[in-house]
Structure formats: C-alpha cells, structure tokens
Amino acid sequence: MQNSGKFINKAGSLPALTDEERLLISRAAELSARCDYSAVASCFLTPREQRILFESGAAAGGFFYGGALGATRRKLVFLPSWIEYERVIGGAFSTEKEQQFEDILSSYGCEDMMSEFYLPVHLHCSGYEKLSHRDWLGALMSLGIKRETIGDICFFEGEAYVFAEPKAAAYIESELKRAGRDKVCARICPLPEDFRIEMEYKSVSATVASPRIDGVVRALCNMSRDDAALLVTSGMVELNYFTETEVDSKVFGGDIISVRGHGKYIVDSADEQTKKGRVRIVARKLV
Q1: Which end of the chain is more exposed for a tag (fewer CB within 10 A), N or C?
Q2: Distance (Å, rounded) from C-alpha 186 to C-alpha 163?
Q3: Does residue 129 have a pLDDT over 50?
Q4: For residue 121, is pLDDT > 90?
Q5: HSE (CB half, 13 Å, CA atoms) of 248?
Q6: What CATH number was assigned to the domain covering residues 119-188?
Q7: Could you say which architecture CATH assigns to the domain 4-113?
Q8: What pLDDT, on the 0 to 100 scale, is given for residue 16?
Q9: Is the pLDDT of residue 131 over 70?
Q10: pLDDT value at position 5?
Q11: What are the residue ranges spanned by the domains of the chain?
Q12: Contact 101, 108 (CB under 8 A)
C-alpha cells in the first residue's frame, strides 16, 4: 500500500497498541527464531494483526497465507532455512507474496507441509435454506471454538469451506450438526482443483475536490460532508484496519476503508484528475 507509512505516528513509533498486540509481536519474533529445521506458523490473524506484524518488522522473512490466494484471515508462516527463495517486495496484503509462497511449496514438493497448521473443511447443508457467512460463523462459534483457530469461510460454486487448525477441524467434523435452521455436516477434504476465494464487489466511482478521507467517505457512502466528517471524528471509520479520526488524512490507491454501518471499500485509484481539476475515486464495495 502506498501509504503504509501512515501506520507510523509522528513520533516515528507504532500507534497505541494493546498489551495483547504487543504480545503478538513478541510471539512472532519467537516463531521466526524457531524455523531453522521446520516450518512454523501463528494462529489465524485478523487483517489488523497482520498489519501490526508487517509494520513492526516482526513478519520480516515470513509469509501471510490463509489457505488460498485472497484469504482475509491468514497465518504468519516462516519456512525452514533449507528452503531458499528470493525476497519479494510487497505490503502486508501483497498477492504477489501469496503467489510466491504457493510456488515455493510446489517447487519443493511441500504442498502438504501446511496440513500441520490448517485443514480445509467442506461445510454441507441439506438445501432447506440458503446459509450465509453469518449462519456458518455463528454455528462454528456455538461449538465453543476459538476464533483464532479458524480462518476464512469461503463459498465456491454454491458450497462452503472453512480453513481450520487440525484439532479444530476434527472437532468441527465431529460436532457440527446445525447452522441457521438447517441440518448440516462437515468433512475434512482437499479443496476442489479450481478452488478460488470468491468475493463479491460492487464498483463505485465518484469525484472529490481532494482525496481527504472525509471527502472520500462522503462520495463512497453518498452522504453530506458534515455527516462524513462526523463519522471520521467519532471513530466510525477505519483506514487500512486502523481507526482514523483526522478528517484531512489522505487516501491512496490500494487503501481499504471501512465505515461502520456503511460497508467496506477497496480503493483502486485515487489520483486521476478530471478536466475540471477534481480527483476521481475508483473503488469496490464488498457486498
């Protein structure tokens, strides 16, 4: 992301982190020191946690991967020292680094290496009703499973899959019986050959006087500038997974904006100027 430096505050240090987030950085450093002979991996991380580890430097030399290209919740993986690869420059959410990770495992014949850290679980319903992401997540959480032991819940050709740590996967396979109002079952199995994470987006474009976040939120969410500014100053807007309260913060291509109650947007472009000197914002809204 072009503005990854926004993560660093004016004093040149990380923004205020919780004790748990600082412990996360320490644990990542411990992982990095243990990968001489075998791969090691963290639990499934939220996008915010991934960004903390990336910007703090704790993820240096590792890869974020969640089971398939484009996963949102991913593990930080350090490969053993006997696997050689060239460093790929990219941000915390670099697709190029994910693709490199898959290519490295394939070239070394280590595709099954990650089964120690997660397994794909096929989630199947009777068809009585169409189950949503929320239905499946609620059913999994009702089993008492910790959120950090499962990754993305993905839909592929009408079927649902979840990535889960081996013990959690076995428990899901054994105990998951209902989701929503439907009877369901779960089975640990390989992913389909053409599996891909399918995310639905709606294209959004608008013009703004400048790429300030209050103006961009106004344009993307179709509201007044005052309402957009109020959302920002009241802590209802996240820029790249961190709360942004300064209305004059700049938005760049590649940024991710989350507006509570209005959705999540990926900004593809924020620097094209129109003939009238305004800035064209091109984005995608997650639906």
Answers
A1: C
A2: 12
A3: yes
A4: yes
A5: 0
A6: 3.30.70
A7: 2-Layer Sandwich (3.30)
A8: 78
A9: yes
A10: 40
A11: 4-113, 119-188, 201-286
A12: no
pLDDT score recorded for residue 157: 84
Residue 165: pLDDT band with limits 50, 70, 90:
very high
Q: Identify the residue with better confidence: 176 or 9.
A: 176
This prediction has a pTM of 0.85
CB distance 71 to 151 below 8 Å: yes
Provide the 10 A C-beta neighbour count for residue 80: 15
Query: Which two three-digit tokens encode residue 60?
Result: 């240096």
